[in-house]
Amino acid sequence: MDTDGKGIILQIQKFSIHDGPGIRTTVFLKGCNLRCRWCANPESQICRPEFTLDRLKCVRCGRCVENCGQRARTVIGPQEYPAVDPAVCTMCLACEQHCPQQAIGHEGRLVTAGEVAAEAKKDKPFYDHSGGGVTLSGGEVLMQREFTISLCRKLHEQGIHVAVETAAAVPSEQFQELLREVDYLFVDMKHYDSVKHREGTGVGNEQVLQNIEGLQDSNKPFRIRIPVIPGFNDSAKDAKGFAQVLNKLGVPEVQLLPFHQMGERKYELLGREYTYQGKPQLHPEDLEAYRGIFEKYHIKAQIGA
């Protein structure tokens, strides 16, 4: 959503140390064009504010329905949980405010680029001392392209280093526009094979690989990251496939991110099905042999952030 310099963010997380060099403030934007089956941040997928419901707290008292001025809230039957119609809801938050059990919450709020930049500026002494700055994450930052570009420029006006996290599954002209506005990039590479990439994320990887190739001519520092997902890209064959493609692209190092389950509870709150429900998470030691295959191809591989 790009309107009058405004965008929808999830949160501003301060004193981050794993999202780029130095001490950083990470701004999480809402909206993503991928639907990764293992996504740890499902609340970032839809580019609009949305409600959560904790069914462990909800007693189905109907207060949310009674206090909804737009009649966007409904409960069908005494055993049903309250539902909301996003086409009618104006996110006035009356339902959340009148919930006696605090079972209703929401994800996403509308802000201006100036507001975010002003908040980030408060910690500029920490950035300057540590070589840090602000990292824009998501979701996919280019789903709110105008807001992202505006925010990058406002941060640079204040002398703040800007990094972004992106899956790079966007048109090359948009990716190149972003490149001109940032100082550092993290680019996720989900799979080396386009068919498998589409199975896991909903889109092929041709655009991703093209944009990674374009990074080489940008003179911008970047890091390729591979989320290692059980049953999707975690085999020795997969490591070899990644290494071969990265060699062709001239990428000398990667960051391997072990699959985790920190987002599992979020699916429950959003009322969505999670494909990887109950799947055991991976630990750094589980990826040692995987990492070794990259080393055989002379690609330096770091496990974890």
UniProtKB/TrEMBL annotation:
Pfam families the UniProt entry points to: Radical_SAM
Domain Radical SAM core stretches: 18-300
Alphabetical list of InterPro entries matching this protein: 4Fe4S_Fe-S-bd, 4Fe4S_Fe_S_CS, Aldolase_TIM, BssD/PflA/YjjW, Organic_radical-activating, Organic_radical_activase, Radical_activat_CS, rSAM
Catalytic reaction(s) noted: glycyl-[protein] + reduced [flavodoxin] + S-adenosyl-L-methionine = glycin-2-yl radical-[protein] + semiquinone [flavodoxin] + 5'-deoxyadenosine + L-methionine + H(+)
Keyword Iron-sulfur: yes
Keywords carried by this UniProt record: 4Fe-4S, Iron, Iron-sulfur, Metal-binding, Oxidoreductase, S-adenosyl-L-methionine
Superkingdom in the source lineage: Bacteria
Matching PANTHER family: PYRUVATE FORMATE-LYASE 2-ACTIVATING ENZYME, PYRUVATE FORMATE-LYASE-ACTIVATING ENZYME
Protein name: Glycyl-radical enzyme activating protein
Organism phylogeny: Bacteria, Bacillati, Bacillota, Clostridia, Lachnospirales
